[in-house]
Amino acid sequence: MMVHFSRLLRLALSIACFASLASAAEPKPDGQPHSFTFGGPNGEQFLLDGQPFQIRAGEIHPQRVPREYWRHRIQCAKAMGLNTISLYTFWNGFEQPDGSFDFKTGNRDIAEFIRICAEEEMWVFIRPGPYVCGEWDLGGLPPYLLKDPDAKLRTMEDANFMHHQERYLRAIAPIFEPLLLKHGGPILLTQLENEYGSYDRKHESAYMQWLKDFWTEQGFGPFSTADGTTEEHLRGVALPGVATGLDPLNSDKGLATAKRINPGVPVFSSESYPGWLRRWGEGNWAPSKRIKRELPWLLKNNHSFSIFVFHGGTNFGFTAGGNGKANKGADHYMPGITSYDFGAPVGEQGVLTPEYYEYREFIMKYIDNDELPPAPAPIPTMEIAPFTLEYVAPVKTLSHPSLKGSFETPPYFESFDQNQGMAIYRAKIPAGEAAELTYTFFHDYGHVFVDGELVRTVDRRDEYKDDQKRMMIPTRSQESTLEIWVEAMGHINFSITMESDRKGLYGPVLLDGKPITGWEVTPIPLDVTTVSKAKASPNDNMPGGIFRAEFKLDQVADTFIDMSKFTKGTLYVNGVNLGRYWNIGPQLRLYCPASVLRKANNTVTVVELVQSNADQIRGCTERNYEFINEKTKNTNNVW
Questions:
Q1: Structural domains in the chain, sorted by start
Q2: Active site positions, annotated
Q3: Of the N and C termini of the chain, which has fewer Cβ atoms inside 10 Å?
């Protein structure tokens, strides 16, 4: 009888202990060392200090978010019931022209971002690449890697790539290392590369192993990967002892496949999508309905997950990437827009969407409601009354010194160390009847002139259509000047087509089948310094121009600059490149943080590539919201 009672007592105590653990508050960063390991049944659980732990992460990219708003965005994640911040780091956003790395200035100070996460009691999941995708220019890789025409990326086959990626990793590892869990920091987990199984070189497991060995030698771990859910994506890149992230984990089938290919490790959703990316000419941002089914499933089954993206931010400057896919046997290029709103629960300017509160309700059903703080107050926005810009000078006046010598075939931007911006290519063509001009690569947008007369505007997005790489040059009574303006947009950031996405006019250019030689090249990188110093010059009757205006403010707040009365170009405010605009939508307004503006005089400069007439811009309190599945129409942007 006593033995039976003792067993019951032990059972009761065990149940009470389990209940106590289950109801106990989740552990939070406290400045003390902790451990994060894999364990439990078959090693398939994440363990924080030996106890099962569910990662509920939200992806935020500090390099896309004004530094002064980092804490606000992290607080929004905490208030939604998340416990971890996941983040990419973009190599080409840190490396400077001289090869040094800046991890301190502005929104490059990722160590400070991670410290703020810890202060807000949020864990951190780092994804340092070196390749990350993220719809960022060349997936975060520096374009100088494409200078060699035979360059290969993301492979041990290319010694130059391996040299530079190791140089980057050795620079960034010491930034993260003091913030690891074992030192009292908040970093739980480190991802190796990104979606390597979706790359056509996906079976090079030696490269993935090299990355694991590198990070292990630096004292990091544990590790995870991120890939698609099929056997094709996972086989060959799964590493023993490395957790499997699926993009996304949303079914028992995907879970079973991952467990079969890489058993004995946790499987989680490394990217659960609340929306999707947008490219120029597509519809507006629409939140995903699918995640409203997936999120409750993940929570109910205690699967760890990361919402990609929780808050997207902005592709300031020339940081937006692009996509390319085969279409009718040709590359269909789709450049990304400046906004990275993504239909995320926290919008580009930090506004909390209706979906934010829906996701919060889902999460509150599975965690202690008392732990959730209230959502932080919104960041103020303001209107700026319409004002008219004035024509300053032709676009040509922004040119840098021409490249020395002439070229048999046009050189691509990367060969003369330019990333994006523009260049003007010139060559002489003989007198003759109307003739057919054909080109090899025209990346990505621009104009073709003969003796100053516009022949055609080229848009690489249309190259997959018939006869897009050929045009008729009119009759010339004498030797003429062929002048081609090329604007580069974002490098492709996904798939092995990255390796061939060089910018500018390059490869043979033919006139009636005969090569045009003797090319001169004038770079126009559209750098902030040159644009800011542009001086008045007469209109040359060519497309586009530099436009400028000054305006005064009594107060500053976030705003969205409405560019819908201009056509295509780049917007600069007080010497800050806010990114590209294009009236084909879906984005008609560019986000301008309060930190860019000044109480008193402000200067706005527009480099416009199409129209030559000045027009108005204004500041709005929100982005344009129309939801159109096909082409965006300017339905709620009425002046």
A1: 34-371 (3.20.20.80), 384-393+528-620 (2.60.120.260), 401-524 (2.60.120.260)
A2: 195, 271
A3: N
